[in-house]
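Bug #77: duplicate submission created two jobs. Keeping one. Sequence:
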Amino acid sequence: MEHLLGGVNRTGNLATDAVAILRHHGRDDVAEHVQRVAAEAERIARRLGADVTAATTAAWLHDISLVIPASDMLGAAESAGLDILPEERQVPVLLHGKLSAVIAQRHFGVQEPITLDAMRCHTTLRAGASRCPSSTPGCEAPFVPAAFAPSAFSPGAAPPPSSTAT
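Kept job's structure:
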């Protein structure tokens, strides 16, 4: 996964860097999506009195792994040592939340469990998806916005590219 984050001059600004990495790999659709999700995450977190930094960090990075071609996601997840559900083996793009959490932790230094949980469980295969595994009050706020902002996976949206831009 490391090679996928190269080729972009990192500024240290999470939003700028996330968008630059996505655009570098031809994922303008995802860059626009995470911008909308980040705005909604901030709005919801403020309204709920939740951690705005956790919410916006999760929003900016929840789809960062979509720079990985869908055909490579299963191998990336196996290499990262992730637990993989049978459904994720059948449809590897479902692994993108888990992979995004790995990238956030390893390459962006995100360590807060609430933020990593939000990224991991923003897809629908988690049992009890109405609440995340963290016991922190308000932990729902970081991942709820992805359901409200139009997604790159909306019906009729183009699928992720099979190869990355260089």
